[in-house]
Write a structure and sequence with these properties.
Blueprint (H helix, E strand, L loop, with lengths): L1 E6 L11 E3 L3 H8 L6 E3 L5 H20 L7 H5 L9 H4 L7 H17 L2 E7 L3 H7 L4 E5 L7 H26 L11 E7 L3 E4 L2 E4 L5 H7 L4 E7 L8 H14 L2 E3 L6 H8 L3 H9 L3 H4 L3 E2 L2 E2 L1 H13 L2 H19 L3 E4 L5 H12 L3 E5 L15 H5 L13 E4 L2 H9 L7 E3 L22 E6 L4 H15 L5 E5 L11 H4 L5 E3 L4 H7 L2 E4 L4 H7 L4 E4 L8 H5 L4 E2 L2 H9 L11 H9 L6 H13 L4
Parallel strand pairs: 1-2, 1-4, 2-3, 4-5, 6-9, 6-13, 9-10, 13-14, 14-15, 15-16, 17-18, 17-20, 18-19, 20-21, 21-22
Antiparallel strand pairs: 7-8, 11-12
Helix pairs in contact: 2-5, 5-6, 7-10, 7-13, 8-25, 10-14, 11-13, 14-15, 18-23
């Protein structure tokens, strides 16, 4: 047996033994050149180990709420309603919660330890929760341990979030006084968020997700309204303008602000509801509860501990409780036949579905973006969550889902939906996507590379660093960064370190794809659009979760080392790496790509509504 050295920071001195690296790209290449023994990269963990990590995460997350401890489930103990379903652990958010990434790391360590027959793990810079999880399985030697945030700080941060949420709620309630519509009773309500999904631009409403759907529904003779949670996004200096615009829209357009159905007593009641927290604290040290987290000699509880506690303490549960209550009251007053959301299984959507259904409305979700098996927040356990066994408390899921493509339809069916409740239509958001274009000709003698990051800045910082390192001093390679609108990587310290080598896009996506010879990405949907326009997309493989629908659906170039990426860039040819059967790819990811998704969805929604305006 031997010692496996596992690195989140570069080890000091020579490494005596095989190495598993979780390092950033440039540091990883440097260390690889100094290791004389076997060198393993976490990005190269086999598919079967990744699949097992996914099962570990999804099953454990589902069991936390559903397992009977002391005769009752946490879902039952937490409240009389849906509190557990609004908790971030039940949502399984791989983008904002590091738990799944931690479990992937543990499975990578098991794979590497088995490959080199190691019984001792020496960690350099390992997260403390990883060390704690390993202790039952290996002898662990800890080097360069990072500081761990103590539990009292978790409490303080979470309680501050809840207090801030209360203040925000009270401000929004004041803004919405008198903003309730009079007399309007639309047959279809589209749910959204003012002003990050719906906003006023140039005197008209713009919806970044439903796009042309409202007009298509209206053209079929049905009345359409918007039910919006006031949630001014982004620049604080814009907040007052966004709120004023929301009130104007509520008075002059068919927009209903959910907060207009709430009062101060509702905000206080939601904020001071502590039954879910009490239920969790009563069981978190119970041996039967803690046994849920034991898998293959690993203790996963340290990876869940902070998120579990903070999720019961912070402002998330009160916000969802208010959305549920306001949705119930609004739907009871407006009496829509159908309520439509674009966030599928997000806690906010679950809350809206619960409220709408309690008021007698049908509920519909339209898939808003591409996803794959490792985009874990899309998935329910079909028995414990979708059917609600063993306590009868099923997740508030939509009555009907419109899927973007055939691949994602199958994923929704894996959640437990009957086939008649998941229809493949495409998404109105992507009605601009068209069938595959011819392979784009090269822009010149070099190669123009568009970097397309997604929401998770930690994942995308590695993409940026890898591209900059691979292209360093490589003649003719030009890099341009296209920021995600909700997570600008160009404002990060990682961009400051490479800004002399990476430009920033200021144009539209069409402009950028017309400029680019190649798109480099981790999991952005920009990659799918690029491939259909004849621009190849290469993936920098993340060290944690891989949320790329394109990488799951097609055989594309995928890179795990700077050296391999550099060699590929040096030998780039136009169209290199484009999937062979892009017609099938369209079907899997965008259905028909004929610009008709909004019309198809509108026809089906109005058929559900059963009444004409």
């Amino acid at each position: 047996m031997s010692r496996l050295i596992v690195c989140w920071t570069s080890p000091v001195g020579a490494s005596a033994g095989p190495v598993l690296s979780f390092l950033p790209p440039a540091a990883e290449e440097d260390l690889a050149g100094r290791v004389s023994d076997r060198f393993l990269r976490a990005r190269e963990v086999p598919a079967e180990a990744r699949a097992q990590a996914r099962v570990d995460y999804l099953k454990t997350s589902a069991r936390i709420g559903a397992e009977r401890v002391g005769g009752r489930t946490l879902r039952e103990e937490a409240s009389d309603g849906n509190a557990w379903w609004y908790h971030p652990v039940s949502y399984k958010d791989c983008e904002n919660d590091p738990t799944f990434g931690g479990i992937l790391a543990l499975r990578a360590i098991l794979w590497a330890a088995d490959a080199v027959s190691a019984d001792t793990v020496e960690t350099w810079g390992a997260p403390p929760e990883i060390v704690a999880a390993l202790n039952g399985r290996f002898k662990v030697v800890v080097r360069a341990a990072p500081w761990r945030v103590p539990e009292p700080v978790w409490w303080l941060r979470a309680l501050a979030s809840r207090a801030f949420g209360l203040i925000q709620s009270l401000l929004d309630l004041l803004v919405c006084i008198g903003a309730r519509p009079a007399g309007s009773r639309p047959s279809v309500l589209l749910l959204g968020y003012w002003d990050w999904s719906v906003r006023e631009e140039g005197g008209r409403l713009v919806d970044r997700y439903f796009k042309a759907l409202p007009d298509e529904i209206a053209a079929l003779g049905h009345s359409v309204g918007r039910l919006c949670w006031l949630d001014v996004f982004g620049d604080p200096a814009r907040a007052s303008r966004g709120r004023r615009a929301a009130v104007r829209a509520a008075k002059s357009e068919n927009v209903t602000l959910l907060q207009s159905y709430l009062d101060i007593a509702d905000a206080l009641e939601a904020t001071f509801e502590i039954r879910p927290l009490s239920a969790y604290l009563r069981r978190r040290n119970d041996p039967n509860f803690r046994a849920l987290f034991k898998i293959d000699g690993l203790d996963l509880f340290p990876l869940f501990a902070e998120r579990l506690l903070r999720g019961f303490l912070d402002g998330g549960l009160p916000r969802c409780a208010l959305i549920e209550k306001a949705s119930l009251r609004a739907c009871a007053a407006l009496k829509p036949a159908v309520c439509v959301h674009f966030l599928e299984h997000h806690p906010h959507a679950r809350a809206a579905f619960a409220g709408a259904r309690a008021a007698g409305a049908r509920t519909v979700a339209i898939q808003h973006a591409g996803f794959c098996r490792e985009k874990t927040f899309y998935f329910f356990d079909p028995v414990l969550e979708f059917r609600g066994e063993p306590d009868g408390r099923a997740v508030p899921a939509p009555d009907l889902i419109f899927a973007m493509g055939e691949m994602t339809r199958k994923h929704f069916l894996d959640c437990g939906y009957p086939s008649e409740r998941v229809l493949t239509t495409g998404s109105p958001r992507y009605d601009h996507v068209r069938p595959p274009a011819q392979v784009k000709n090269s822009s010149g003698t070099g190669v123009r590379v568009l970097l397309a990051p997604a929401l998770d800045l930690e994942v995308e910082a590695a993409l940026l660093a890898a591209a900059a390192a691979a292209a360093r001093d490589l003649p003719g390679v030009e890099l341009r960064l296209r920021d995600h609108p909700f997570a600008p990587l160009s404002r990060s310290p990682e961009y400051d370190a490479v800004k002399d080598r990476v430009g920033i896009s200021s144009g539209t996506l069409d402009d950028d794809l017309a400029w680019a010879d190649l798109v480099l990405f981790s999991y952005s949907t920009v990659a799918e659009e690029a491939v259909l326009k004849g621009v190849p997309a290469w993936q920098w493989k993340p060290v944690s979760y891989d949320a790329s629908a394109l990488a799951e659906a097609a055989d594309i170039p995928r890179f795990t080392s700077v050296a391999a990426l550099r060699a590929a860039l040096a030998g780039f040819r136009p169209g290199q790496g484009l999937p062979q059967d892009r017609g099938r790819l369209v079907e899997d990811l965008f259905f028909r790509a004929d610009g008709g998704a909004a019309g198809r969805v509108a026809a089906m929604i109005t058929a559900l509504s059963g009444s004409s305006a």
